[in-house]
């Protein structure tokens, strides 16, 4: 009933699975996407939004590589915001609210239009391994499907257990079944498994809210978008979110339910996402704070369903309800469904290579929440990388690995496989050593050429990126080579309360002053002229501005990154025997033996491996 | 967390539940719709189409009363067909193919826009009854929700068990959980329960089909629509279906799986829908037929998923697949998912009153598949009637009951509660004694005034119906009163090879000849003129044509129906003691005691009650 053998079988059609399937198929692999329910492809389990700080950069990276998350988000967006616009460009982070139903529908239609991609609806209950190599999967009805490689993206479904107050029931997401069988197979193969938890807030009826008591949160005045491609357009119309606050009263009511909270009464033992804490966690950990923000987010263009961001909880429903009724604007709130927590199996990601292939089973890849991460963007980017690498391995090509100085995706995967994670891993800008390099505006420069080289990013995408690069670079050169006279620049300086000059000088120098913006520079007729003659679009102009104004920082980070690159070049053979190196600390020897870093640089990032241990390694390797 | 008490609680948001909730809320009842998953409201479990023979009439009736099924179907239609257009107007049956995803989304948004209607996502696991009256429901998490009335519309979910070949697993629909708890509560209360089964065909990838080997089945050239209201417009663009055939080869392969068929090896004991048989049923029962038709129906505007109408099966997947590959156009077919059968609990509907209220528990209503019916239309219409009647009872108003000569809905409910059903009940035109009266073109005349009287059908709907009625009647009068001269009518007659006339006569007479159509009559200038001056639309013109050409039949059935009405008027007190009537046959006495018919007419339709028994009753009641 299936072809003799697929190149790539993707299990699960969440964000990770959808990207994995699209990438492998677009690269030319005969790909099968098997999922429990074809009506729930790329469901947003939690909030209806993509992006945000560090996560928005990831979506831009996915898009630059040729994944679909950015395009689907754009097409179904109801609001766009560039967060942190007042800070330096390394911090700018795009975020989109999407229409939840349309998001899933658009993903499904995108996948259906992907050649080489087959679909099948069923639960996969086991994997088939022969001599340390994956050879297929088994469905719950007993069918065997053969594949040269398998990407597992089971999300929160593996032995999923839902908690609300003191009640528990099996499920992978509210209203959906849990997935059983795979965990056991993996453990039998020698994998280490763990348990994590995450939670979600109640959904409420917008008709029962009084928005006049909340603060409106409109989208950006000039909305941008995720995708570098022309497949999407910025929004013309947007829907607003709203903001309200909890209060001491609300906290008191919530505390009434603590003895029935699965978090506090011991029935949930696994660890939840520290940075998406539940509301009970927040009032517990920050007992001195007398209020917490709540964002009230519409679930789509037309629906009356709202998502209460910031109120994730697994307290008993009656407590959730009583407490929320005390929040301004929620006096008459009606629930669509209560918040809940879910516990699920994950596999410590130190069991993976940089390609996301497991070390134990050749051809078997893990991506997404199954690796102990949290968040759609983290999942999607892993799926993309696993799908690409599964394809490349099957076709005996070199693997596709992004370095820490090349992409947040590189940081994410390197962190996971090197350090593992004890709690749901979420991306932050602070995790990246070179975040000035890893900006949302230049993900195309960083990644499109690499992806084009392996045949994923198409020619159109590549040419568009080159045009942007060439034109913005030329514009920077123009600023470097063209002078402005005092009578041209001084009006700008005086408006900006900046010291006036008496002599002409290169515009680059004037423009570099922090208080001067591109908008100011456009007042100089030669600048205005240049833009018109060269037909520069907003992205090119913005890019030039960043290159001029942050060139110092960028240069410095580039140098640091180059040093890293050199260490990165020092590969450690997979068979390296650390037990011979007596001068290594005991802990380092143990960790290195377990994790088997691929390079000196990766070794240096393992917690427990000291600079001293790194020197020992360098000496031994003849450096 | 819920209001003190709802007027109406509807359990389940399938076709029955969605109509029930909309009707009760629109009538002004404080209504709650609780369902297992708010993302699957009004899912089409089986084929993506509404209407068809006898079923299309029901959709028109639902629309005339003010339900939403017609509107939602129209808004999401991808193809429209008026079936049986070559037969008399009693047989004309509208049918719409819908976009499956949009259908569910549109229903959800329609419900969200309904005032008085709240939503809640959870499984209901029990009902709460006090002194023979319903007082609420219990959720699986233990919440109690109070209600003055409850409508159960659990569809195929009650203890649902899915079968494919020799595998079984619990579920209410592929990929969804079964519902547990309610059956036990009802049995404890004294209800009789039974088990039925139904099945569905595989879904396949349209990209793997060769449509050039099939026969195209386009929609109507001039598509119409279900709704009488102006909320929807006829389609401008349509998608085609296709047709192919099974063969002896296909049948042989299917037979290979018979020993693993749950239908034939005894693992399914319950009875399936005789008129939607599985393919294995068909080749078993009609062993002499060497082929069966298959309709290949797209699931939406953009999706590549197709539904294989006519190939419903619960044979093992490998057999389904091998057999389908032998069908012309399916040589390379790829499956999205296999067909399957499902067994579920139902409650013999003789336990209900004409209002769909249970006889055992006051305020408790059953609607849809739970009553042993099959089909979206049958479910939706019951939901509508149960929702209306729950509202009316709570507000102490007279119940809303349709007679057999007023609506297919009347036939449906009367059949169910009077005769019960041993196998999934589906509507046919042959079930209606007065089908010449119950046409799809006049459902508005028949039902909108009744619905307007109880406040459901709005004024706009009512006025539109009146205009159509008045204008079409006036047009008929015009034909009755206006003469045509031989030189006007003879050209028409000669074109139609009909005998010529020598004298003027009333147009009504000429027009009554079977071979003459309205199109012909429009060639007469006074007719053309009348239409223009009076601004008649197509519906009014068509209505006049039917009234002229079928007046004889219609008149005759009206007379018969009037007789029925008189019997219908003879009410039997609920407390009537049949044991006193010794002249009744034993069987009649037993059935009458059990079913407690409300009228002599209903008594006469109970199987086992002979005309002689009816005479006994009539004599006893003084007639
Ligand atoms: C209750 C809840 C709360 C959350 N809260 C947050 C939060 O606060 N912040 C945050 O950033 N993220 C949160 N998330 C996490 C976010 O939803 C995930 O990170 C993201 O969806 C993971 O994507 P994924 O592709 O790994 O898995 P998922 O999106 O979970 O998708 C898994 C897919 O695999 C399918 N599947 C599973 N097992 C099988 C099988 N055996 N056979 C076939 N198909 C299978 C499922 O049907 C599903 O399609 C939450 C998730 C849940 C459920
Ligand atoms: C596999 C299959 C094959 C079918 N084949 C045919 C066919 O060939 N021909 C045909 O005419 N019809 C067929 N049907 C039947 C058709 O789908 C039904 O007649 C119609 O959908 C019934 O509508 P309903 O509203 O009664 O129930 P459903 O559409 O089944 O809806 C039931 C709803 O109730 C909810 N629910 C159930 N229990 C609970 C609970 N305890 N708490 C909260 N919510 C609950 C469910 O989530 C669902 O939303 C088939 C159905 C299935 C599943």
UniProtKB/TrEMBL annotation, chains A, B:
The keyword Metal-binding does not apply. PROSITE patterns: GIDA_1, GIDA_2. Its main location: cytoplasm. Residues 548-619 form the tRNA uridine 5-carboxymethylaminomethyl modification enzyme C-terminal subdomain domain. It is found in: Cytoplasm. One of its GO terms (cellular component) is cytosol. One of its GO terms (molecular function) is flavin adenine dinucleotide binding. NAD(+) binds at residues 272-286. Belongs to the MnmG family. NAD-binding protein involved in the addition of a carboxymethylaminomethyl (cmnm) group at the wobble position (U34) of certain tRNAs, forming tRNA-cmnm(5)s(2)U34. This is tRNA uridine 5-carboxymethylaminomethyl modification enzyme MnmG.
């Amino acid at each position: 009933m299936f072809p003799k053998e697929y190149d790539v079988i993707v299990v699960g059609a969440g964000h990770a699975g959808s990207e994995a399937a699209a990438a492998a198929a677009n690269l030319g692999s005969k790909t099968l996407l098997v999922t429990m329910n074809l009506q729930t492809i790329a469901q947003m389990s939690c909030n209806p939004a993509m992006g945000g700080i560090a996560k928005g950069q990831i979506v831009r990276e996915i898009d630059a590589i040729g994944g679909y998350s950015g395009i689907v988000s754009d097409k179904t967006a109801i609001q766009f915001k560039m967060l942190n616009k007042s800070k330096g460009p390394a911090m700018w982070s795009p975020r989109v609210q999407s229409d939840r139903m349309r998001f899933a529908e658009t993903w499904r239609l995108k996948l259906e239009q992907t050649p080489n991609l087959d679909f099948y609806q069923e639960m996969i209950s086991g994997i088939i391994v022969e001599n340390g190599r994956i050879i297929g999967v088994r469905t719950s009805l007993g069918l065997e499907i053969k594949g040269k490689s398998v990407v597992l993206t089971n999300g929160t479904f593996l032995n999923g257990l839902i908690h609300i107050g003191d009640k528990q029931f099996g499920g992978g997401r509210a209203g959906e079944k849990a997935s059983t069988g795979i965990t056991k197979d993996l453990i039998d193969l020698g994998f280490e498994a763990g348990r994590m938890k995450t939670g979600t807030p109640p959904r409420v009826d917008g008709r029962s809210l009084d928005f006049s008591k909340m603060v409106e949160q409109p989208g950006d005045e000039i909305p941008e978008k995720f995708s570098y491609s022309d497949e999407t357009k910025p929004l013309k119309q947007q829907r607003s979110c709203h903001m309200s606050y909890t209060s001491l009263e609300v906290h008191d009511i919530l505390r009434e339910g603590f003895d029935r909270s699965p978090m506090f009464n011991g029935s949930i033992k696994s660890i939840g996402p520290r940075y998406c804490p539940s509301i009970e966690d927040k009032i517990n950990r920050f007992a001195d704070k007398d209020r917490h923000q709540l964002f009230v987010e519409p679930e789509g263009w037309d629906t009356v369903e709202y998502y209460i961001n910031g109120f994730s909880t697994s307290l008993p429903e009656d407590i959730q309800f009583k407490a929320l009724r005390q929040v301004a604007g929620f006096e008459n709130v009606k629930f669509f469904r209560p918040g809940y927590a879910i516990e699920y199996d994950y596999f410590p990601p130190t069991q993976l290579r940089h390609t996301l292939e497991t070390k134990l089973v050749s051809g078997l890849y893990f991506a997404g929440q199954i690796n102990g991460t949290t968040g759609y963007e983290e999942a999607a980017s892993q799926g993309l990388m696993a799908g690409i690498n599964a394809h490349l391995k099957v076709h005996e090509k070199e693997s596709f690995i992004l370095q820490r100085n090349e992409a947040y995706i590189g940081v994410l995967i390197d962190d996971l496989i090197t350090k593992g994670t004890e709690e749901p891993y979420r991306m932050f800008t602070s995790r990246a050593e070179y975040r000035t390099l890893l900006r949302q505006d230049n993900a195309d420069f960083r990644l499109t050429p690499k992806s084009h080289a392996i045949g994923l990013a198409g020619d159109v995408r590549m040419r568009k990126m080159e045009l942007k690069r060439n034109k913005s670079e030329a514009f920077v050169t123009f600023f470097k080579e063209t002078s402005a006279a005092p009578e041209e620049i001084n009006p700008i300086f005086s408006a900006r309360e900046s010291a006036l000059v008496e002599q002409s000088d290169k515009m680059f120098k004037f423009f570099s002053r922090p208080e001067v913006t591109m908008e100011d520079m456009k007042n100089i007729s030669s600048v205005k002229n240049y833009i018109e003659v060269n037909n520069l679009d907003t992205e090119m102009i913005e890019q030039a501005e960043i290159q001029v104004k942050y060139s110092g920082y960028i240069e410095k980070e580039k140098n640091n990154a180059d040093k890293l690159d050199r260490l990165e070049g020092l590969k450690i053979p997979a068979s390296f025997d650390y037990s011979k190196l007596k001068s290594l600390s005991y802990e380092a020897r143990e960790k290195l033996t377990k994790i088997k870093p691929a390079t000196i640089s990766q070794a240096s990032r393992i917690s427990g491996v000291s600079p001293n241990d790194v020197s020992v390694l360098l000496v031994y390797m003849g450096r």
